[in-house]
Amino acid sequence: IKNIKYMEKQSKNDLMINRIVLNNYLITKKLGEGSFGRIYQAESCGLQYAIKVESKTKNQGLLETEANFMSYLEGRK
Fold first, then answer.
1. For position 59, what pLDDT does the model report?
2. If we measure between CA atoms, which residue out of 27, 24, 1 comes closest to residue 12?
3. 15-66 residue pLDDT tens
4. From CA 40, how far away is CA 23, in angstroms rounded?
5. pLDDT at 58
6. How far apart are CA 50 and CA 29, in angstroms?
7. Per DSSP, what are the bridge partners of residue 21?
8. 47-54 and 25-33: which strand pairing?
9. pLDDT of 9 above 80
């Protein structure tokens, strides 16, 4: 329960909350954070999405690798 309260407190101070990204997705709350970035909940056209944001200062290129892997798994290569 402490972790959830901490996450909610951090989300309220997060500058990404209530921002529109990619001209279409409204960031509504922070879902989690790790050593390479953050994951946010976003909404667009009544649907909910998860958006992963990689830190610029710790940019390892992992997000691009993940996107390529996901495309490969979906058959888009």
1. 61
2. 27
3. 899 999 999 999 999 999 887 789 999 999 999 999 988 877 766 678 888 8
4. 16
5. 65
6. 10
7. 25
8. unpaired
9. no
Q: Which residue has the tokens 């901490």?
A: 6
**Residue for token pair 């390479």:** 36
Cβ-based neighbours of 49, under 8 Å, separated by 6 or more: 25, 41, 42, 43
- Write down the pLDDT at residue 10: 53
Q: Within 13 Å and on the Cβ side, how many CA atoms surround 40?
A: 22
Q: Which pLDDT score, from 0 to 100, does residue 76 have? A: 67
How many residues in the chain? 77
> How far apart (Å, rounded) are the C-alpha atoms in residues 40 and 42?
6
Spell out the SS3 assignment of the chain: CHHHHHHHHHHHHCCCCCCEECCCEEEEEEEEECCCEEEEEEEECCEEEEEEEECCCCCCCHHHHHHHHHHHHCCCC
